[in-house]
Amino acid sequence: MKANLAKRDMSIVLAGGSTPKIVYQCWNQIPFRDFICWNTLQFYWGDERCVPPDHPESNFKMAQEAFLEPLKIPSHQIHRIRGEDPPDKEALRYGNIAEKLFMEGRDPGFDWTLLGIGTDGHTASIFPPSLSDSNPKTPCIVATHPETGQKRISLTLETLNRSKRVSFLATGKSKAEIVKQVIESSKAEIYYPAARIQSANGILEWYLDEDAACLLGSAY
Ligand code: 6PG
């Protein structure tokens, strides 16, 4: 029996990349599939590649296949970034969606934001060294992947930081060094966008596997 305890829907910002896929797939497994009140959740994205929703690199497609489709989450609960649309136009549209949510709900920000981290310290699609782009006046920007040149649409650090809870997900030895730098280095904020995630309104946490956590001090 599902106890619907939510007074209003809960907004969840999904992370992109490959790491979160295992989490999303778990949501479609027992007990989560039956335990979570799916009809009280509204799904957003922290960033999207500027590709169509059926493109192999689409963050929406990954989530759709992992749990949105299997759990038959209705479209009115899914607020994807339209990677197929002109980037500037979509950044404006999605930024307005975020602002409307914050104003409507009279809430400071999203309820829960999931983020990944790149080995260069980027998160969502806020890449170093363009930290100047990470705090513009708009809640959502057009970014360019520094290696591939791929255009991305991304919520800004300021918008992400308005979340009540932010959970970083990182796995594998390749992330161990950047995880250590971002968590332990006092200078991390200068170099790494991920280090500027502070969750002004609540909880900042890391979900790491042993490999990604292997360089952290004994305090963790
Ligand atoms: C994206 C993500 C990006 C991702 C990191 C880690 O669209 O790619 O928003 O920030 O979380 O690059 O990616 P992996 O999980 O694939 O290592």
Note poorly predicted spans. Answer: none
* Count of alpha and pi helical runs: 8
Q: Gap between N and C termini, in Å?
A: 37 Å
Integer-rounded radius of gyration: 17 Å
Structural class: alpha/beta
Rounded mean pLDDT score: 92
Shape: globular
Biggest sheet character: 5 strands, parallel
What order do the SSEs take from the amino end to the carboxyl end, as H and E? EHHEEHHEEEHEHHEH
The percentage helix is 25-40%
* Strand runs, count: 8
What small molecules are bound in this structure? 6-phosphogluconic acid
Q: Strand percentage, roughly?
A: 15-25%
> What strand line-up does the widest sheet have?
2-1-4-7-8
Summary, kept brief:
The protein is α/β, with parallel strands linked by helices. Helix content is 27%, strand content 18%.
Report on the structure:
This protein is α/β, with parallel strands linked by helices and 220 residues long. The chain contains eight helices and eight strands; from the N terminus they run βααββααβββαβααβα. α1 (21-27) packs parallel to α3 (59-68). The chain is globular. It starts with 9 loop residues before the first strand and ends in a 7-residue tail after the last helix. The protein binds 6-phosphogluconic acid. 6-phosphogluconic acid (6PG) is lined by residues 15-19, 46-47, 59, 116-118, 122-125.
